[in-house]
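Section 5.1 Outputs to date
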Amino acid sequence: MIKKKLSIVDIANELNISKTTVSFILNGRAKEKRISEELVEKVLKFVEEVGYKPNSLAKSLRTGKSNIIGLMVENISDHFFANIARYIEDRAYKNGYKIIYCSTDNDAAKTKDLIAMFRDRHVDGYIIAPPVGVEEDIASLIKDDLPVVLFDRFFPSVDSSYVVIDNLQATYNATKYFVDHGYKNIAFITFASHQTQMQARLDGYNKALKESGLEPHVKEVIFNQEAKEIIKPIAEFLNNKQFDAILFGTNRIGVCGLKVISDKGLRVPNDVAVISFDDYDVFELYSPSITAIAQPIEEIADKVITILLNKLNTPAHSRKNEKVTLNAELMIRKSSAVPDTSFAK
């Protein structure tokens, strides 16, 4: 038999006091309402004994706060987003908030449903890495005075707070590194996307090649696929032309690309040099180790949660949007080294 969950009414009846008095005590308003310390102690002792837990939704309706933050990312299992979530959760918890997080899969319809769910749960604030197609939903949250911080990407058409990195400069620097070390046929393999961060990465690559008078070679792969479906078009692309250097637009496509390179029997960096966007722990374990563009994950997370907490602690009419752009770092490892030809015959 399922044990009935106690309500405030049950507690009031058991202790022979009014439900209003119980509510004031449980919501920390006993002193304000001049309720005796003896009665407060009696109620709290009974609550502890029976293990009473108030309904969080009902409490949020009464107090206007749920002390919950909704965190929506592309894929919570992804190394980058998982680490961001971990740092944000730690800071949030220390400030009295809990995190509900979920993956959008870069799907606009799914993201709209998730935003609606968070609204129903009365979360206090939103941290979102948004897919294209939810601009109106984000604008609606902001219009309703709900604290929102975007990260990793943003919408130029929506005036919002956001934290991003300088993606254009990051890929420009990586491409220039190749150029400055004598590489001529430099490919850029990335996901097909209209998101601001992905477009900026493509722009940085094109800018560096244009300045250097070199021809761009771009391959865009459909994002939402299994690894084997990502590998196939990369293999076809590399079969059609020889490149001496490849820049990968994300670590996921980088890992798939490295498998293709290995399967083709190419040596890194002797046959082809490699740099991948988004540093990844396993990149240091590859042989040779993989040069990567490292995003400042801890700093991104710190900026995101700091901005949101400031919004949560500021009246809606006084909130200001903060737009933060951070720098990435090119971690030079062996995969981008100039091949040693001193022993060549």
